[in-house]
Amino acid sequence: MADRGLIIEELKRVLKERELTYADVARRLQVSVPTVKRLFSTGDFTLERIDLICELAGIGLAEVLERAQEHSSPTNQLTLAQEQEIVSDPKLLFVTWLVVVNRTSFDEIVRDTRLTEREVLRYLIRLDRLKIIELQPRNRARALISRRFSWRPGGPVQKYIHERLLREFFASRFTGPQDEFLFHGGPVSAQTLTQLKRTLRNAARECMELIERERSPEAAREGTAFVLALRPWVYSGFAQFQRG
Prior knowledge:
Blueprint: H1 4-17, H2 22-29, H3 33-42, H4 47-57, H5 61-72, H6 80-87, H7 90-101, H8 106-112, H9 117-129, E1 133-136, E2 140-143, H10 156-169, H11 190-212, H12 236-239
Antiparallel strand pairs: 1-2
Helix pairs in contact: 1-5, 2-3, 2-4, 7-9
């Protein structure tokens, strides 16, 4: 269980993400802005006030606790053995993607997929044994890795993604009204390359935060994917014309 200080810090992050100010919190708690600042400074919140702030931000206390635990001791990468077992079974990979990447609940998986309750539970138990999730009462799965984790570079899952998912993803011409495709490049120094990597990471973080904040009705949502990639590279079709 995250301690009080971690919870308060996570509430601050949530308010910033939702673009909510201390003035908004003050109105919800029916206190002054200086009082809100003092409460966040001292952490002297009652459970009732924390619930009111969560309600204002449109987030459950359970999710705040989960996020606080992630930020306190996040695991950002699986082991080679964990990834090997995941890709050994397509259904296990599918459930892992839903639970770890999308944070989909047990009930949602049963409702929205062809997997039976028994199948979903069996795969959650496997993920629990792999120490990827902690299976809790009522089949609730608490991910033991950060929302912003990454697959191992060149590892089993990344190879699977390159060989299957990306091949299918890039088969599109990206001409639909909701599609977007940007491809740019040019010669840069090692310093600029480092800056580009940092910019891409920040962009990916912002995109993930938008997905995490999604609160639209299920019927209004559709599957979406984005790719950010960068590497020193020269197109093989151009290389023959270059010197050196």
